[in-house]
Every structure is written in C-alpha cells, then in structure tokens.
Amino acid sequence: MIKVLIVDDHHLFAEGVKSMFRPEDDIEITHHTINGNEVPHLLSKHEIDVILMDVSMPILNGIETMILLKNEGHDTPILMLTMHQSIKQVKGALRKGAQGYILKDASKAELKQAIELVNKRENYFHPKISNQVFDYFRGKNSLVSELDTLSEREIEIIKYIAEGCNSKAIAESLFISEHTVKTHRRNIMHKLHVKTSAELIKLAIDKDII
C-alpha cells in the first residue's frame, strides 16, 4: 500500500482525492495538511511514501516547502500538483527536486500511474506539459554541453569580465596580449550565444560559472 500525504489548501479537493481510491488500488491518502510548515513534522511522525503537493498555497508554497524539506534532510519523493501548466513553475519544481508534475484535471488513472511511478522514484509528467518538460531538458542539456566547451582560460576571462575588467586589464593580469583576450571574448560570446557582457555575466551567475 502506497501511503500518500496531500499538501493542499483546498479541503474539498483533498477529500475528493481521498475518496477516489479503493483498497484494491494499493494507494491510501493517510494525511492531509494545508500548511507546508507542518510537512516535516508529519514525515517524522508517520510512514509516508509519496507527497502530493500543490504548487500554490498561501502560507508556504510548494517550492518553499520543498526547500524546507531538503534543508531538514527529508527525501520523500514529491509529486507536484497544480491547475496551471506554466513551464516557469515546472522548472522551479524540477530544480528543487520534484519527481513529477501533474495537473488537477488529471483522471484517476493518470493520478494513480503518477503516484506509482513517483513511489518508485521514477519521473512522471502530465501529458499536457510533457512536451514543455522535454523542451526544457533539451535546452538545459544543450547549454550544459556548451558550457563544457569552455576552456579554463575562457572561464578565467569570464570571471575577470564579471569583475568589470576591460580587455587591456585582463591582458595585463594574465600576461597575454590584448588581441588574445579579445579573441577569447569573441569565442566565449559565440559559444554561449550571448551578445553583450551583461548577458554573459547574467548567464555566468545563473549557471554558477562565477
């Protein structure tokens, strides 16, 4: 029996999900809370296999609750739940370790499948957002491969650029010619598909290069 905790501020929705499952489904909604702050306590006191968690909640939203759980050392698999198919929300949840993402208009069969997969620590994404998720990971993997093409010298130059150094100052610090620095800068911009130093610095910060 897969024991599920629902974290959602809509009581009627939680009750509806709870009444949906029968013993033969091997899924039981054992607990429900509307407050993300209560989740660590519930996990410590009860045997819970999967967390079904709403993204949007008034006290502590789903992403913030995930951060709280991670900080307190909990790793119970989480299936995120929402009414919206915003790729921004999806990315936020994935970055914090969500195992899956499902919409509130999902059928019982879809929800059952999602819970079963997440319980096995496999990923599940609702069909309506699966293409967006695929595109996100494809773009992310593409960027990772582009970052991997940067040489140690290019990363070094990016750090100097972030400190506000011009090509002449970078050349003097690295004991190379200004022409060489400018060549490196052009190559970096080309590899990372950015056009300005500001775009380069923002990308470097986002991807922990600096």
Structure description:
With 210 residues, this protein is an alpha/beta fold. The chain folds into two domains: 2-129, 3-Layer(aba) Sandwich (Rossmann fold); 145-206, Orthogonal Bundle (Arc Repressor Mutant, subunit A), CATH 1.10.10.10. It contains ten helices and six strands. A six-stranded parallel sheet has the order 2-1-3-4-5-6, sandwiched between helices. The radius of gyration is 23 Å and the shape is elongated. The N and C termini lie far apart (47 Å).
| The CATH homology group name of the largest domain | Response regulator
Just give the CATH class of the largest domain. Alpha Beta
The quaternary state of the protein chains shown equals: single chain
Total number of beta strands: 6
Amount of beta strand = 5-15%
pLDDT averaged over residues: 85
Give the SSE order as H and E letters: EHEHEHEHEHEHHHHH
Query: What Rg do the Cα atoms give?
Result: 23 Å
**What is the 3D form?**
elongated
Strand order of the largest sheet: 2-1-3-4-5-6
Poorly predicted runs are none
CATH architecture of the largest domain: 3-Layer(aba) Sandwich
**Secondary structure category:** alpha/beta
Report helical residue fraction: 40-55%
The number of domains: 2
- CATH fold node name of the largest domain: Rossmann fold
The profile of the biggest β sheet is: 6 strands, parallel
Helix run count: 10
- Distance between the ends: 47 Å
